[in-house]
Specification:
Length: 141
Protein backbone atom coordinates (compact mmCIF):
# COMPACT_ATOMS: atom_id res chain seq x y z
CA UNK A 1 0.00 0.00 0.00
CA UNK A 2 2.73 2.47 0.98
CA UNK A 3 4.79 1.76 -2.14
CA UNK A 4 1.75 2.29 -4.39
CA UNK A 5 0.88 5.60 -2.73
CA UNK A 6 4.46 6.87 -2.85
CA UNK A 7 4.72 5.89 -6.53
CA UNK A 8 1.52 7.83 -7.31
CA UNK A 9 2.97 11.08 -5.94
CA UNK A 10 2.54 13.93 -6.92
CA UNK A 11 -1.01 12.70 -7.43
CA UNK A 12 -3.19 10.92 -4.90
CA UNK A 13 -3.02 7.15 -5.02
CA UNK A 14 -5.86 4.91 -3.94
CA UNK A 15 -7.00 1.34 -3.47
CA UNK A 16 -8.67 -1.11 -1.13
CA UNK A 17 -7.80 -3.84 1.33
CA UNK A 18 -9.80 -7.07 1.26
CA UNK A 19 -9.87 -9.87 3.82
CA UNK A 20 -10.41 -13.53 3.01
CA UNK A 21 -12.96 -15.66 4.81
CA UNK A 22 -10.51 -17.69 6.92
CA UNK A 23 -11.64 -20.88 8.52
CA UNK A 24 -12.35 -22.52 11.87
CA UNK A 25 -12.49 -19.24 13.80
CA UNK A 26 -9.35 -17.83 12.18
CA UNK A 27 -9.15 -14.53 10.35
CA UNK A 28 -8.43 -14.72 6.65
CA UNK A 29 -5.46 -13.18 4.89
CA UNK A 30 -5.48 -9.56 3.76
CA UNK A 31 -5.01 -8.52 0.14
CA UNK A 32 -4.02 -5.00 -0.93
CA UNK A 33 -5.46 -3.93 -4.29
CA UNK A 34 -4.10 -0.68 -5.76
CA UNK A 35 -6.56 1.05 -8.09
CA UNK A 36 -6.08 3.75 -10.71
CA UNK A 37 -7.09 7.24 -9.65
CA UNK A 38 -9.36 8.70 -12.32
CA UNK A 39 -10.41 11.85 -10.45
CA UNK A 40 -10.48 14.94 -12.67
CA UNK A 41 -8.21 16.67 -10.11
CA UNK A 42 -5.97 13.78 -8.96
CA UNK A 43 -3.62 15.98 -6.94
CA UNK A 44 -6.41 16.80 -4.47
CA UNK A 45 -8.95 13.99 -4.92
CA UNK A 46 -9.30 10.33 -5.78
CA UNK A 47 -11.90 8.28 -7.61
CA UNK A 48 -11.80 4.61 -8.55
CA UNK A 49 -12.02 3.73 -12.23
CA UNK A 50 -15.49 2.14 -12.51
CA UNK A 51 -14.30 -0.84 -14.57
CA UNK A 52 -11.41 -1.53 -12.16
CA UNK A 53 -13.74 -1.22 -9.15
CA UNK A 54 -16.25 -3.61 -10.72
CA UNK A 55 -13.45 -6.13 -11.36
CA UNK A 56 -12.30 -5.90 -7.73
CA UNK A 57 -15.87 -6.49 -6.51
CA UNK A 58 -16.37 -9.50 -8.79
CA UNK A 59 -13.03 -11.04 -7.78
CA UNK A 60 -13.70 -10.42 -4.09
CA UNK A 61 -17.08 -12.10 -4.38
CA UNK A 62 -15.58 -15.11 -6.17
CA UNK A 63 -12.81 -15.37 -3.56
CA UNK A 64 -15.22 -14.85 -0.62
CA UNK A 65 -13.37 -11.72 0.47
CA UNK A 66 -14.75 -8.78 2.41
CA UNK A 67 -13.88 -5.14 1.82
CA UNK A 68 -12.32 -3.90 5.07
CA UNK A 69 -10.51 -0.71 4.08
CA UNK A 70 -10.41 2.03 1.46
CA UNK A 71 -7.06 3.83 1.34
CA UNK A 72 -5.75 6.91 -0.39
CA UNK A 73 -2.97 9.44 -0.06
CA UNK A 74 -2.91 13.16 0.55
CA UNK A 75 -0.24 15.02 -1.41
CA UNK A 76 2.07 17.29 0.59
CA UNK A 77 -0.51 17.81 3.33
CA UNK A 78 -1.72 16.09 6.52
CA UNK A 79 -3.26 12.63 6.86
CA UNK A 80 -6.72 13.95 7.71
CA UNK A 81 -10.18 13.02 6.49
CA UNK A 82 -10.95 16.12 4.43
CA UNK A 83 -14.36 17.65 3.81
CA UNK A 84 -14.19 16.16 0.30
CA UNK A 85 -13.37 12.71 1.76
CA UNK A 86 -16.36 12.98 4.10
CA UNK A 87 -18.67 14.17 1.32
CA UNK A 88 -17.75 11.23 -0.92
CA UNK A 89 -17.78 8.61 1.84
CA UNK A 90 -21.06 9.75 3.40
CA UNK A 91 -23.23 11.74 0.98
CA UNK A 92 -26.06 13.44 2.87
CA UNK A 93 -24.48 12.19 6.12
CA UNK A 94 -25.15 8.52 5.32
CA UNK A 95 -22.03 6.34 5.02
CA UNK A 96 -21.81 4.35 1.80
CA UNK A 97 -19.61 1.71 3.49
CA UNK A 98 -20.42 1.94 7.22
CA UNK A 99 -18.34 -1.08 8.30
CA UNK A 100 -15.26 -0.14 6.27
CA UNK A 101 -12.33 1.90 7.59
CA UNK A 102 -10.63 4.60 5.57
CA UNK A 103 -6.86 5.03 5.78
CA UNK A 104 -5.24 8.26 4.70
CA UNK A 105 -1.48 8.38 4.19
CA UNK A 106 0.32 11.74 3.93
CA UNK A 107 2.93 11.73 1.17
CA UNK A 108 5.47 14.57 1.22
CA UNK A 109 8.04 14.74 -1.55
CA UNK A 110 7.20 11.18 -2.59
CA UNK A 111 7.65 9.65 0.89
CA UNK A 112 4.99 8.55 3.39
CA UNK A 113 5.23 10.69 6.53
CA UNK A 114 2.10 9.97 8.57
CA UNK A 115 -1.11 7.97 8.53
CA UNK A 116 -4.53 7.91 10.16
CA UNK A 117 -7.51 5.55 10.13
CA UNK A 118 -11.08 6.83 10.06
CA UNK A 119 -14.19 4.85 10.98
CA UNK A 120 -17.88 5.75 11.04
CA UNK A 121 -18.97 6.09 14.66
CA UNK A 122 -21.67 8.15 16.37
CA UNK A 123 -22.79 9.87 13.17
CA UNK A 124 -19.38 10.97 11.89
CA UNK A 125 -15.96 9.72 10.89
CA UNK A 126 -13.68 9.41 13.90
CA UNK A 127 -9.92 9.39 13.32
CA UNK A 128 -7.10 7.54 15.00
CA UNK A 129 -3.44 8.17 14.12
CA UNK A 130 -1.65 4.95 13.21
CA UNK A 131 2.01 4.09 13.31
CA UNK A 132 3.54 4.22 9.88
CA UNK A 133 5.80 1.18 9.54
CA UNK A 134 8.95 1.61 7.54
CA UNK A 135 8.75 -0.76 4.58
CA UNK A 136 11.88 0.61 2.98
CA UNK A 137 14.77 -1.80 2.72
CA UNK A 138 17.50 0.44 1.36
CA UNK A 139 20.61 0.54 3.52
CA UNK A 140 23.04 3.47 3.61
CA UNK A 141 26.43 2.71 2.05
Amino acid sequence: MIHHLEAAWPQEGCGVILQGAGGAGEEGAFRVVPLPNVAPTPRVAYAFAPDAWLQVCLEADARRETLVCVFHSHVDTAATFSAEDRRRAAPAGIPLLPCVSYEVIAIHGGRATSAARFVWRDGDFQGVPIRLPDFRFEKPL
